[in-house]
Amino acid sequence: MRSMLFVPGDSPRKFEKASEGKADALIIDLEDSVVTEKKAEARELTLSMLKSRPGPHQLYVRVNALDTGMTLADLAAIMPGGPDGIVLPKSQGGDDVRQVATWLEALEAASGIAIGATGIVCVATETAGSIFGLGSYKGCSPRLAGLMWGAEDLSASLGATEKASGGVFHSPYRLARDLCLMAAAAAEVAPIDTVYTDIDNLAGLEAETRAARRDGFSAKALIHPKHVDIVNAAFAPTEAERVWAEKVIAAFASKPNSGTLRLDGQMIDKPHLRAAMKILGQS
């Protein structure tokens, strides 16, 4: 999964348009894109969108944060639609995942869905306190599928006046990004890069996405359909990377009992094999 496109939970029209694109996943949003007085209506519309399944995309739903008191109502309303996963905003750590997982188990049973089928992706850096919970995700639940970092709400939590300048995040946000990446790697789940908000700066989007892939992120969240193709292309391996990965895998296949090998004058070992398998989507 490379691209996760947000779609407002109260807009079937935007959902239909997004479904015509090539995003790997659509995130139907019940949180920030829906005003309070339209939450109930958005739940009903989201359920209809889930049941329509217009394309091959994975379908996630971003529910409202646990501290709003609306999360369980969101889940109860949309789970009969069988979403592939839930996006939990403003998550503080592994305990939040366990709470949502408990509700999901009951709601899956009530909806005739296989227990454990619904994954959880956490937006894990939206408050100052959440940064200190990043180490608690490892082993918290087999449902945990990814950790996404976010800067918009973190800015408000910090009381900051500016997140970035010249297209470069300031140090508190770079810290949150890097720690989220490491937490995801430690938990062995997908690290997901934050949304790019300069809608028409497509060159900046490509540069930011390539930097995310370089550092280890495997996907990026998006807020505009025209970003999808650029992000998908940026996460695709280059021809040189593909050739290298194929050679590494072939070298270890020819000598399966070797821990280290010599390839093109360089020593390679099992971490290189894991990297090669990840490039080719075999990990």
UniProtKB/TrEMBL annotation:
Ranges of residues in domain HpcH/HpaI aldolase/citrate lyase: 2-225
GO MF annotation list: citryl-CoA lyase activity
Keyword Protein biosynthesis: no
Record keyword Glycosyltransferase present: no
Keywords: Lyase, Magnesium, Metal-binding
Names of required cofactors: Mg(2+)
A Pfam family assignment: HpcH_HpaI
Superkingdom as given in the UniProt entry: Bacteria
SUPFAM superfamilies: Phosphoenolpyruvate/pyruvate domain
Enzyme Commission number(s): 4.1.3.34
Entry's family note: Belongs to the HpcH/HpaI aldolase family.
Protein name, per record: Citrate lyase subunit beta/citryl-CoA lyase
Lineage of source species: Bacteria, Pseudomonadati, Pseudomonadota, Alphaproteobacteria, Hyphomicrobiales
